[in-house]
Amino acid sequence: MTSRAYALVTLAYWVFTLTDGALRMLVLLHFHDRGLTALQLAFLFLLYEFCGILTNLFGGWLASSKGLRITLTSGLFLQILSLLLLSLLNPTWALPLTIAYIMGTQALSGIAKDLTKMSSKSAVRVLVPKDTTEAQSGLFKWVALLTGSKNALKGIGFFLGGFLLATLGFHWALYSMAIALGLTLLLIKFTLKGDLGRSKQKTKFRELFSKTREINILSAARFFLFASRDVWFVVGLPVFLSSVFEWSHSTTGAFMATWVIGYGIVQASAPKFLRKKEEIHQSAQSTLRWGIILFIVSAALALAVQNNFHLVPTILGGLLVFGVVFAMNSALHSYLILAYSDADKAALNVGFYYMANAGGRLIGTLLSGLTYAWAGLSACLWVSTACVLFAVILTIPLSKNRAPA
Predict the structure, then answer these.
(1) Dist CA 128 CA 1 (whole Å)
(2) Cα 9 from Cα 63, distance rounded (Å)
(3) Which residues of the chain have pLDDT under 50?
(4) Cβ(362)–Cβ(387) under 8 Å?
(5) Is residue 206 assigned to a domain?
(6) Which domain range does residue 80 map to?
(7) Which residues of 265-281 are buried (b: 16+ CB within 10 A; e: fewer)?
């Protein structure tokens, strides 16, 4: 794989990420305005996350068999289709039909997102194939940069979604994003050549589930890690900011965007925080330490919110601290999954790993609506704390083994 090919893949991922973040905020704010409850809003994104589980599983097998170019262009096309179908929504439809239709368009978007993400993350492992100490340090930097920039752009996408909704309206916002993705798809179609990421050996279907112990453990930890974020992030927090703090859509979107952008910046800078080579080399031990810190932060924040302790500075400041620590955990996880994978099987392992990631987000999304409707934001934060604890417990066996060298 050449640097040019990697640049093309990354560019496509960045453009997709902007539209994906904008679409999430666009749907959330627009249909909250139309009177949907927190639980109904959560249901809008359930198929998005569920389809991500299946897409990551089978998409990794498809990429390993056919190459990453196929999965990348398929992801871009499906996102365009999702946007155009959503623009056909009729405001006179009954509520159950409206919710079902939106869920269907979001299902397509979920497939598109995970095809694109899996393609981009797998490309990094192809770029750094040699298992040397220097290469592993380089791999950590590449993974952190790609993932961090993606999250920063997704945060900008949140802001973009609110801005497009306010300036262009719902339908023209969708059209503008579809045009941007269409131009990107044409660029990739005619400039990205070769069998990028295609396995040299025929990939057997049973290999989808035949993983090493380390990859299984890491995938399970990833499930709980991302459930811990989405249980308050997807529905609970934006609804709380709009209804309890009475923030405008622009202000709510700006804070959500700031959180994700900051999270992305920290994630991209993770190798700089871990300055010592031996700490990067022992990244499994670092993952356990940062997981314990995240548990402490999450529990302290939940306790403070439950007791109504200076809610505005506590929630805003506490979630920013949570974001910093969560970003370090996520960066280390993203590095380890590639470090534990051979370059030839990177797409398979990354697909399996992000299947667990999507599963965590699915559960987190559902719990976000249910828990907030049941007991408010403090309950969401306590459920988040429990999820972090499970993730920490699961990483203990990894910390006892020497990280890949």
Answers:
(1) 9
(2) 14
(3) 1, 132-134, 276-281, 403-405
(4) no
(5) no
(6) 3-192+213-399
(7) bbbbbbbeebeeeeebb
CA distances from 210 to 165, 221, 391 (A): 45, 18, 22
Q: d(Cα 371, Cα 378) in Å, to the nearest integer?
A: 9
Helix, strand, coil percentages (3-state) for the chain, rounded to 5, are 85, 0, 15
Indicate the number of domains in the chain.
1
d(CA 103, CA 105): 6
C-alpha span between 299 and 43 (Å, rounded)? 27
Task: Give pLDDT tens digits for 47-97.
Answer: 887 887 888 777 766 766 666 778 888 999 999 999 999 999 988 888 889
Q: Which CATH number characterizes residue 233's domain?
A: 1.20.1250.20
In a domain, 15, yes or no: yes
- Element holding 182 (H helix, E strand): helix 169-191
| Separation between Cα atoms, residue 397 and residue 405, nearest integer Å | 17
Which two structure tokens, joined as six digits, stand for 229? 């974020």
What digits encode the pLDDT tens for the residues 168-204?
999 999 999 999 999 999 998 888 776 555 555 555 5
